[in-house]
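Bug report (template v2)

What were you trying to do?
Predict the complex of my protein with guanosine-5',3'-tetraphosphate.

What happened?
Run completed; filing so the output is reviewed.

Input:
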Amino acid sequence: MQVLKDKIEAEGVVIQNSLLKVDSFLNHQLDPELMVKLGEEFAHRFKDNKVTKVLTIESSGIAVAIMVGLALKVPVVFERKKKSAVCNDDVYSTTVYSFTKNESNYVTVAKELLTAGENVMIIDDFLANGEAALGLTHIVEQAGAHVAGIGIVIEKSFQPGAEKLQKAGYRVESLVRIKSFSNGQVNYV
Ligand code: G4P
């Protein structure tokens, strides 16, 4: 998606040739006009899939997910992160390990917000190791719902996440795919 590549080019900062800092428009400050465009692009890619709900994980997925929900006219649910497990029969739950942050989060969604038979589109900002996205699929499947596909804003294709998800049978739609970082530059697939 060219508009996103242009934004990354203008404002993204590559850190140690492994991380892309996009705090100025996606992870801390948000660019609302760009968020609308990202939402419309995901909605366009999934327009024939009869999506009934969008699911994301707090916090950075929420801004994009709400724009997808707006474009598809469906509700948006976000997984909540907690540091430790709390016994609660009213929630679906799983544990998500973050390689980048070296921490585990116990994530939950209230059972009343996801129903068997729903067709759920998963949205997240980054795809690196795929743990967050897999955690989202586990929650959808616990509910007896179906994963329509996984929409990612920025895929780091040199990390194993995309392949892991595709091997598990999920459709992955990434708006930009990064092949590598070199000398502070972003190289796309
Ligand atoms: P995963 O997201 O595919 O599971 O991979 P990983 O475990 O490596 O990433 C964990 C966290 O690090 C995620 O944020 C992910 O968005 C973020 N991340 C990974 N690579 C990059 C990168 O190059 N740039 C930025 N800005 N973030 C990256 P999170 O724990 O879900 O936190 P939040 O930001 O959504 O609150």
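What did the reviewer find?
The beta strands are 13-15, 19-21, 53-57, 76-82, 91-98, 103-110, 119-127, 146-156, 172-182, 185-188. The pocket of guanosine-5',3'-tetraphosphate is lined by residues 19-22, 27, 57, 59-61, 98-101, 125-132, 156, 161 (CB under 6 Å).
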